[in-house]
Amino acid sequence: MTLVLCGFPISNYYNKVKLALLEKGLPFTEENVNLKAVDEAMLNCSPLGKIPFLRTPQGALCESQAIMDYLEALQPATPLLPVDPFAAAKVRELSIFIDWHVEMAARQLYGAVFFGGKPLSEESLARIRKQLTTNIAAFKQLAKFSPFIAGDSFTQADCAAFASLPLVGMATKVAYGEDLLLAGGVDYKDYVKMIGERPAAQKVLADRKAATAK
Predict the structure, then answer these.
(1) Residue 177 phi/psi, 5° resolution?
(2) What are phi and psi of 7, to 5 degrees?
(3) CA separation for the pair 122, 129 (Å, rounded)
(4) Distances from the Cα of 111 to the Cαs of 50, 104, 117, 177, in angstroms?
(5) Cα–Cα distance between 93 and 100 in angstroms, integer?
(6) Helix (H, G, I), strand (E, B) or coil at 61
(7) DSSP letter string over 12-59?
(8) This prediction's pTM
(9) How does DSSP assign 81-145, residue by residue?
(10) Residue 114, CA distances (Å) to 53, 105, 175 in order
(11) Where are the CATH 1.20.1050.10 domain residues in the chain?
């Protein structure tokens, strides 16, 4: 079976899926996607023109969490979800929370702080900060860091956290002069360092660094 991960290695959602593929030992190739040249073929795979998407023998899949669940069903021998249904749901809960309530809130800052976009107004910065402060406090309630984000095993939630938490920290540090994750009591630095020692994570980081250099 040939799986093709489409996107680019600077994207955190691409790297969330890539880390899962590597951890599960699934063979795959990568296809770079130029978002400035979205064509009909891409839209047939990802109707909103978003990355990542995955080409499979049965067709294409978009949305990172749907891809993660597909990979779990495809390769259950190396699980990234607990067997217990409630524990598995808690992992998914964390993954969704990181993606939609922490990273997406911080993403409002990215244009200005990472890509040279128009500076945000004081009003917008204050609104985003308030949203992030609330959402980070809620995230802290769910995250365990014992030592992994959902407990004692590496899971899908770690793929999401490793890919996104450093970006959130960097963006808020630039925008506000302080890392709002750390300010909110989410001491994620040692956790990210620990995950970064895994061979799959090292591969993701090396490829991201190479792509950034280009």
Answers:
(1) 80, 5
(2) 150, -140
(3) 10
(4) 17, 12, 5, 17
(5) 10
(6) strand
(7) HHHHHHHHHHHHHT--EEEEE--GGG--HHHHHHSTT--S-EEEETTE
(8) 0.97
(9) S-SSHHHHHHHHHHHHHIIIIIIHHHHTTHHHHHS--PPPPHHHHHHHHHHHHHHHHHHHHH---
(10) 24, 15, 10
(11) 85-213
DSSP 63: S
Residue 103 tokens read as 């990273």
Token code pair at residue 44 = 């047939």
Residues paired with 30 in a beta bridge:
5
* Topology (CATH level 3) of domain 3-74: Glutaredoxin (3.40.30)
CATH of 85-213, one of 3.30.460.10, 1.20.1050.10, 3.90.1150.10, 3.30.230.70: 1.20.1050.10
Q: Summarize the confidence of residues 101-122 as an average pLDDT.
A: 97
Q: Assign 83 a pLDDT band (cuts: 50, 70, 90).
A: very high
Dump the DSSP string for 152-192.
SS--HHHHHHHHHHHHHHHHHHHHHSS-HHHHTT---HHHH
Name the percent of the chain lying above pLDDT 70: 100
Assigned token pair, 167? 């970006």
